[in-house]
Amino acid sequence: MTDQLLRAGYIALKDLRAYYLKPPLISWGILFPGVMILAFYLRSPIDIRQVIPGLVGLTLLFGATSMEAIVVAFEKRIGALERLAMAPVSPTAIVLGKAASGVVFALLTGLIVTGVSIVALDLPLSEPLLLLPTFLLAATSFSLLGTFVSVAVREVFEAMTLANYFRFPMIFLCGVFLPLAAMPPVLRIVAYALPLTYAVDALRIHFLAGEGAILPLAVNWAALLCFAAILYSGACHLLVRRLEE
Amino acid sequence: MEEKIAIRVEGLTRYYGNLLAVDHISFEVQRGEIFGFLGPNGAGKTTTIRMLVSLIRPSEGRAWVNGYDVEGEPLAVKASVGVVPERSNLYDELSCYDNLQFMGQLYGVPRKERRARAEALLRRFRLWDRRDERFAHLSRGLRRRLTIAAALIHAPPLLFLDEPTVGLDVISARALRQQIKEFKQQGITIFLTTHLIAEAEALCDRVAILVEGRLKALDTPASLCDVAQEREMVEIGLTRIDPGTVEALQGCPGVQEVYEAQGGIRIHLVEMATTLPEIIRCLEALKVPIRSLNTIKPTLEDAFVALTGLDAEVMLLEKGNRRRR
Asked: Touching check for A82 and chain B: CB below 8 Å?
């Protein structure tokens, strides 16, 4: 068990070095959510602080999934995934390692955006000690979503398409652009089936002292944990199937 | 399992959907030998390796590698073998040195030992000067060398080599064959798949011939050649080989088998004294001048043809159709 965790850690470190810690990806991870939020803000200017939970949530989402959603498909294509599977590393450790690199990258970009927001807007934080678990749970569920997508497809372009099927509805249904209360009931049900909704809700508790938040922090955490568990189990199951092909 | 047996396979079978890729094969590989798995493309060689290294599960049958059950103890199997797949598949983004380090980490090699082994392997495979170069920037031959080095980072007693010389130039392929012989001298058991008959003959202590997922023969190259020796053979060099030449010769009395080989025609016949004049008469009738004529000692290629009933040229074909469930 410890051996497998250690090997998952090595896979994560290798992925960070090989794919993540490159200037274009870091800037993209921050730039894209920033532009989305700025466009929204310019259309309907409100208190700039109101957009911070959405900005941080989207940064975590894009930081965790931008590379994660394609990395397994890419490695499968070049044969490197088979190389991993030939080593004494279980499929569960491979998924863990792959997802962990996405989590670290999302945390990095999320913390940069948070730090800049706090300094630039003199933003007070509620429950600051609990911010890290919120970040961690959100980044984990997003990264595992990316891993799941990446394992589910056969080609890199399919991964990008499928990832966007999940990401874009999440962006518009998570409550950042349209409050959940204002949504038609059907869309609200869909919104509650998406992890970003819970992440943004939890971030409202931290950044806006709970203004606009619907659920208690513990419920948001539990929901994110459930998403992570389901996606992890699904990704492991699919990886075993992919390797058998 | 006895210490002297590296691999034991019993009735190993694998389907891909309805496609029967490997069909109830059984064999043993002795420790310290170079065991060749010879067959045309699509014969099931790679599928067999994938089962033996616990990458895919057998549909039926069992196998033990280094004493570990390939289905029940996959991590132990993987930790005890080195695998060089047909495709050199290390990480393009990492340097030669970092690729070896990463492989060492995955195989649980302690840090100090990892560094020493990586350096030793890079030197041994003449890659030390290029240790900081990314894998993506290496030539095909160098990539192959690094992939083999990576398979040796945890000093496995058993090495699987899947078509190791495919795509290499003549000099690189020759150097690699020499390397494989050195592995044997170091006591490493080699399981080698190849579709190159000459490679199997030159390297292997024993050869298993696999066709359409079935094991057709298994013996030393010399013993396999004895099968072909039972019939007499001549090799005729011709100035040209027309499409109808082989067919016409096939029809000569006393001729058992005719196939093209090494720029000429190789003929298996029942009895030299009576059949040879018939063959010469046939070629004269076809107006195909004879350039040379030799009686020959059978090679593994002849044995392959005799045992499988296939033309040796089939080894060069792309993967084709196979039986379905």
From this structure: yes
Gap from A245 CA to chain B (nearest CA, Å): 8
How many C-alpha atoms does A12 have within 13 Å on its Cβ side?
21
Q: Scanning every residue of chain B, which has its alpha carbon at the shortest distance from the alpha carbon of A7?
A: B106
Q: Could you tell me what percentage of chain B is helix, strand and coil, using 3-state DSSP and rounding each to the nearest 5? A: 40, 30, 35
In the predicted model, is pLDDT for residue B239 greater than 90? no
Name beta bridge partners: B10: B62
Yes or no, beta carbons of A86 and B85 under 8 Å apart: yes
Other Cβ atoms closer than 10 A to B181: 12
Best to test chain B binding among A86, A98, A101 (most B CBs inside 10 Å) = A86
pLDDT at B1 (0 to 100): 47
Tokens of B247: 């067919």
Of B56, B89, B108, the CB nearest to A78: B89
Kindly provide the ipTM of the predicted complex, given to two decimals. Answer: 0.85
The tokens for A196 are: 């970003």
Residues of A in contact with B55 (CB under 8 A): 82, 85-86, 243
Label residue B322 by pLDDT band (50, 70, 90).
very low
pTM here is 0.82
Distances in Å between the alpha carbon of B129 and those of B90, B101, B111, B123? 18, 16, 22, 8
Pick B91's closest partner by Cβ from A7, A80, A82.
A80
Contact list in B for residue A7 (CB cut-off 8 A) is 105-106, 108
Task: Give the Cα separation of B177 and B203 in Å (integer).
Answer: 7
- B318 DSSP 8-state letter: P
The closest CB to that of A244, out of B56, B85, B93, belongs to B56
Considering Cα of B192, then B193, then B199, then B205, what sign does the dihedral take? Answer: positive
| Chain B CB contacts of A19 below 8 Å | 93
Query: Residue range B187-215: average pLDDT?
Result: 89
CB A62 within 8 A of CB A139: no
**Strand order through the sheet with B290-295:** B255-261, B264-269, B232-238, B290-295
Pairing of strands B5-16, B60-65: antiparallel
Q: What is the DSSP letter of B235?
A: E
